[in-house]
Design goal:
single chain; Rossmann fold; 3 domains; seven-stranded mixed beta sheet; 9 strands; 65% helix
């Protein structure tokens, strides 16, 4: 089966095109050795089926980030029969910077100029025929959101794959510059080594850019003597690293200037009108917080109704097991350990689906990029780099890739400050658990209290950033330079598919771990016989004096321990230990609002999960750093929870 790789820059609409091509016939996982998301699926062309890989969005093919490293590694080392390069039609010069680098790989390619609907609305004209002549490859104009050009894309893809197009020997780009002469000279040396010949043009470009990884590959293949000859070519006074990047940009600007004509608009664009409001000095921050409050409100309102139906089904399942299974241990194991433990986690699914659906709307419309822009000045007040907010925003999804994204920061101090901040950002796992348990504790007032918990967690992150910045990192950080994408109407199919695969990913990753923890907790609470609560009761009572000032019972204490492995395990552990068919019903009858609020607050602040801890150790290369962060998060969670508990006991 042919392999088709989809490559594009962030916000180019690449994943929308992938979703249209593959539909539900795709899988979501991680690339080997990293936590960068991997999407792969099968697409039906005219008469054949192909394997489609949605490579991570990248601005170029220099591995400055985990995403860029994954994308480049795949294109260099895997069998790629066709590359579909998705370009943002509203930002052609920037998009072509990646396209030019792809040409150096000499892979069969189709260039799909995306967002045709937005291009027309902005009175932009793109000469795709001339662009095809300049790039030497097929160019298609269309829109992943509306489906325009998709059938033509499938047709052209099949033509290329069936005909077996061979890579071009000559690039249709400027050949008179000093940079190109160096690339040409180096290619002549690389052509003598079979293992380097296929990518000799690309390797030559990257050698001029002084790419360390490519240098290692070439040195290993050629030896020190011929590598020294290459170094002599590179070290010539013209066409050095920065000149190479400038040369690529000049080519993309030149092509963009020749094929793109921007007409005048008779009115202010929708993007400008919205930005005048959403980026307003006085309204931007309230709108940001209001948008998240609205997400909590909608997630709780709709998810709660679906959750109620799931609980009814789980109840009937428990009753059925109790009636049909006579052996007490097996009956208890199935009803409490399986249906009660894992079943309670299944009630998180409506919340996960709805929350990711709403967060994806913020992403697809372009508002998420505005949030980073709005928060830039506040990040500086905490002593953080403007770019730090990009990993922080990712932290609302999952802390693990957020920590890895801190690699994009230039200095070690900026990376460490950002990594210290991320664990205090409420990730999706914590938020879904908070929404489920918060609904049981606070009833109809849950959205308001959950939003308060969210704000306290953000405040704890800000406090931590300020403390770490003052005590350990005193260098002044640089500002944030970023391009804000145009606002776009989200594609419903893309939103639904994204949410569906987030739920599927949750079930695959967390499901197994939660099942194992549920079984272990049940067995530990059942044995040794003769002791009510089993072995776990001993552990709970041993630790409970530490948490008694916070009002936590033994079950709460144990759930915080299992929550370190995965926050969703808090739900299954409580369900198993309480022996409740319906955990929300049990909590609403046995937890006070005061205790519930403090418990949820503690869970929001202490270290997210063991996976985050492992990645922090990997990125900082310091057990001391990790241990200090874990201890600090527990002390901070305990201190804030104790303070609020004391205040609540006075006023309530």
């Amino acid at each position: 089966m042919h392999n088709v790789a989809i490559v594009g820059q962030p916000n180019s609409g690449k994943s929308t095109v992938f979703n249209i091509l593959t539909g539900l016939n795709q899988t979501v996982g991680n690339w080997p050795g990293v936590t960068v998301e991997k999407k792969e699926g099968r697409a039906k062309l005219l008469s054949s089926e192909v394997n489609v890989i949605d490579l991570p969005g990248v601005y170029g093919l220099t591995p400055l980030t985990p995403d860029e490293a994954v994308t480049r590694s795949y294109l260099m080392n895997e069998r790629v029969d066709l590359v579909i390069n998705v370009l943002d039609g509203t930002a052609m010069e920037r998009s072509l910077f990646l396209s030019i680098q792809l040409l150096f790989m000499k892979l069969p390619a189709i260039f799909f100029v995306n967002m045709s609907d937005v291009v027309r609305s902005k009175n932009i004209s793109i000469n795709t025929e001339r662009l095809s002549e300049l790039l030497g490859e097929r160019v298609i104009f269309g829109s992943g959101r509306t489906g325009e050009g998709i059938e033509e894309l499938k047709t052209e893809a099949e033509k290329i794959l069936v005909s077996g197009v061979t890579p071009r020997e000559r690039l249709n780009i400027e050949t008179e510059s000093a940079v190109f002469r160096k690339i040409n000279s180096i290619s002549g040396i690389l052509d003598t080594e079979k293992s380097l010949a296929r990518l000799q043009s690309f390797y030559s470009l990257k050698l001029v850019e002084e790419d360390e990884e490519v240098e290692r590959i070439v040195r290993k293949a050629l030896g020190d003597k011929r590598m020294s000859a290459i170094r002599d070519i590179i070290s010539q006074p013209d066409g050095k690293k920065l000149e190479a990047a400038g040369w690529l940009y000049s080519i993309s600007r030149g092509i963009g200037g020749e094929v793109v004509v921007k007409g005048r608009l008779s009115h202010i664009s929708v993007t400008e009108q919205l930005d005048n409001i959403l980026l307003s000095r006085f309204l931007s921050l309230p709108i940001f917080f209001a948008s998240f409050f609205l997400i909590f409100l909608i997630t709780f309102s709709i998810g709660g109704r679906i959750n109620a139906l799931l609980e009814i089904l789980l109840h009937y399942a428990s009753v059925l097991v109790q009636k049909t299974v006579s052996l007490k241990f097996l009956s208890d194991f199935l009803t409490t350990g399986i249906i009660g433990g894992v079943g309670s986690v299944l009630t998180l699914i409506p919340y996960i689906f709805i929350m990711f659906f709403l967060l994806q709307i913020l992403e697809d419309t372009g508002y998420m990029a505005r949030i980073a822009f709005v928060m830039d000045r506040y990040m500086h007040k905490l002593g953080l780099h403007g770019k730090s907010f990009i990993p922080v925003i990712m932290g609302f999804g999952c802390s693990v890739p957020a920590v890895l994204a801190a690699r994009t920061l230039e200095t070690r101090s900026d990376r460490l400050k950002t990594i210290l901040l991320i664990p205090f950002i409420p990730c999706s796992s914590r938020l879904t658990v908070i929404i489920l348990l918060g609904g049981a504790v606070f009833g109809s007032s849950a959205p308001l209290f959950i939003f308060i918990l969210f704000m306290i967690s953000i405040a704890a992150a800000a406090l931590s950033g300020a403390v770490f910045g003052k005590l350990f990192f005193r260098e002044k950080s640089e500002g944030l330079i970023m391009e804000l994408p145009d606002y776009k109407a989200p594609n419903l199919k893309h939103l639904l598919l994204n949410s569906y695969f987030k739920v599927e990913d949750f079930l695959k990753k967390a499901g197994t771990l939660i099942f194992i923890i549920s079984v272990i907790v049940f067995i530990a609470s059942y044995f040794p016989l003769g002791n009510r609560g089993g072995a776990i009761d001993y552990a709970g009572h041993f630790l409970s004096p530490l948490f008694r000032p916070l009002g936590f019972d033994v079950e709460m204490t144990v759930s915080l321990i299992t929550g370190f492995f995965a926050k969703e395990s808090v739900v299954s552990t409580l369900s198993v230990l309480y022996g409740a068919e319906s955990l929300p019903s049990y909590i609403s009858n046995h937890w006070s609002m005061e205790t519930g609020f403090v418990f949820l607050l503690f869970m929001m602040i202490y270290i997210p999960c063991i996976a985050t801890a492992v990645v922090i150790k990997q990125e900082t290369k310091s057990w001391k750093f990790l241990s200090g962060l874990v201890i600090y998060s527990i002390i901070l969670a305990y201190g804030i929870s104790f303070l609020l508990r004391s205040l609540l006991s006075i006023f309530i």
